[in-house]
Write a structure and sequence with these properties.
Helix content is about 35%, strand content about 20%.
């Protein structure tokens, strides 16, 4: 198949997306597909005489790594210049329209929030992962928590606030402060007192106008992939220092990850059930990943659902697939076949 692996963009997870895209692209080339990596925002410089011929030039790419800090997005935006298609860079839409399917390797804003998915639906472009509605619901942590609660998926106590009204509600320490629509733990802080809370608010509001303040759940952290409505083996995440922030997520050796997680069969079944319930509640299609915290007494809380899980060397979904005997290359191809099924139903 001719496949565009769409990555990059202008979210705080831009660098992570490029690593995901590079790995996915190489995996699909190894599986015999004509896969090319395209930066949705910066565009793509053609080397062939036509769009159709461009896919024939597909080849493996050099490996890249995620930097310890999130990228300077203002510099990225200034470096592009003008584009005829607004957000979409040069040749992006033409290549996507000519492909058999677009593998969505985007993370964060304008990748996981449903906007690109909605545009592709209007343009008749097929893509991997959930549609625009589920993507939008999952990306908004405030909305997702409300939906989880209505569908009996347990979540941490807390509230949503803006710069105008955050003083109206009192935080209970310790607490977590995070942007309402961010990803990869960018802008997330733990506050143990009023002074730390003020700093956490400043950090979160730097990234977004709306934030979420939640009770701090002391315990173990887990993640559960859900593919075609079925839960994968659970993976436990244990950062060596601090919490599971941007650095600990993407710098090799920063976190101990155990899959399958060493918890009882009863707790495993319970968490996997909640993960499937969370995906169903948010109307997530094909695949996703759901994150949890669990207290020592076994009480568990759903933190969020990720509609386009990372596919980097330290990412969780590939590790969960490996625990089932599924290679990275096979997982990438499997996600494409699963995603194509939703289009078969529409025909």
């Amino acid at each position: 198949m001719n496949i565009v692996v769409l990555a990059g963009g202008v979210s705080t997870e831009r660098d992570v997306s490029i690593v995901t895209g590079t790995m996915v692209c190489n995996a699909l080339v190894k599986k015999g597909h004509n896969a090319i990596l395209v930066d949705v925002y910066m565009g793509y410089e053609m080397t062939a005489d036509s769009v159709a011929e461009e896919f024939c030039s597909a080849h493996e790419l050099d490996a890249v790594k995620v930097a310890a800090q999130s990228p300077d997005l203002e510099t990225v935006k200034k470096s592009r210049g003008r584009s005829e298609d607004g957000f979409f860079g040069k040749n992006v839409l033409a290549l996507c329209k000519a492909s058999d399917i677009v593998f969505m390797a985007l993370h964060g804003e304008d990748g996981e929030n449903g906007k690109i998915q909605a545009a592709f639906d209007l343009l008749g472009i097929r893509y991997t992962g959930s549609g625009y509605l589920g993507s939008a619901l999952a990306m908004n942590k405030d909305m997702a928590k409300e939906i989880f609660e209505k569908h009996h998926v347990p979540v941490p106590a807390g509230f949503t606030a803006t710069k105008e009204n955050y003083r109206e509600q009192k935080a209970v320490f310790p607490c977590i402060v995070k942007p309402a629509c961010g990803g990869s733990s960018v802008g997330v802080s733990i506050a143990n007192n009023e002074e730390e809370y003020e700093k956490a608010l400043e950090e979160a509001f730097y990234w977004e106008e709306k934030i979420v303040v939640e009770e701090y759940i002391k315990g173990r952290e887990f993640s559960v992939g859900v593919v075609e409505g079925k839960a994968c083996p659970i993976i436990e995440i244990a950062p060596i220092q601090g919490f599971y922030d941007y650095k600990n997520k993407y710098q090799a050796g920063s976190t101990v990850e155990t899959c399958p997680a060493e918890i009882s069969p009863e707790l495993t079944a319970k968490m996997q059930k909640y993960a499937c319930m969370a995906c169903e509640a948010l109307k997530l299609e094909t695949y996703a990943r759901v994150d949890f915290m669990m207290k020592e007494n076994g009480d568990m809380y759903c933190l969020e659902a990720n509609t386009l899980p990372g596919m980097t060397p330290t990412s969780l979904l590939p590790q969960e697939a490996a625990a089932q005997g599924i290679s990275f290359e096979d997982l990438c191809e499997q996600l494409i076949w699963i995603s194509l099924k939703k289009y078969e139903k529409q025909e």
